Amino acid sequence: MTREVRTISFDADLKVEVYRFEGIMQKFPNHFHDYYVIGFIEQGKRHLLCKNEEYIINSGDVVIFNPQDPHACEQIDGNTLDYRCLNIQPEVMRQYVLEITGMEYLPCFTPTVLYRSELAISLHDLHLMVLEGQPDFQKEELFLLLLEQLLREYSDVSAPGPSQEITSEIKIICEYIESHFAQSITLNHLSKLTGLSKYHLLRSFTRQKGISPYSYLATIRINHAKRLLEQGVPPIDVAIQTGFSDQSHFTNFFKKLIGLTPKQYARIFIHETGSKRSADITA
């Protein structure tokens, strides 16, 4: 059986979360995050779908997901995945962008994949500094220089939003889901809410948002679940508070999207030492 190791750490100085996955076979279904993800492939080959665009990613490739970018990936030819990434919350990104550019905005990074990018080396070095608790000065310098290069070469200041206009009906659905995620939501109710037929609603929502309404709902629930787990709320209570039918359903969906069980994720935040908290999970 393949040995999977999943290491997660939070750096309180940089205010970023770092993941390292080794030997991963897991398929990740279509989902999105409410934060930026800047990652790279150490080893392995994967099929990636992001915003309805398909990619084949390999060792040395850098991937960048903006908040709300729907994406899914799976292994190719039975190869395992070794992957590292930085997760940056929008409010943290806004602070760094202001410091670097003098402007207050949330950037939109393009393209999704930077093939065989030299930035993978800088990301690898920064990742090691966080995991190993390296001196703050060198770590912060490398992070700021890396982010400055990404902003200069791969972001569009003038058009940070999606290119496709979101219709009022789809905005209503998103707002309703975000406000009522803990409740039972049906396609019938969303149809009545907007006046769209169920089929047209599904097609329009998926085309405009790049993700189905149910996957959107489940992802919103998982994002809220993460915040509750970080606050020490027991997984069984988190499942109830975020609208999952039972703890088993919650655990299965959480692992599909995050790559960890809720208990494994919560373990990261139990012990905190200095400016770094971390956990290693071996499967």
TrEMBL record:
Alphabetical list of SUPFAM superfamilies matching this protein: Homeodomain-like, Regulatory protein AraC
Residues of the HTH araC/xylS-type domain: 171-268
Gene3D superfamilies attached to this UniProt entry: Homeodomain-like (1.10.10.60), Jelly Rolls (2.60.120.10)
Xref: Pfam families: AraC_binding (PF02311), HTH_18 (PF12833)
Keywords from the named record: DNA-binding, Transcription, Transcription regulation
MF-aspect GO terms: DNA-binding transcription factor activity; sequence-specific DNA binding
Name of the molecule in the record: AraC family transcriptional regulator
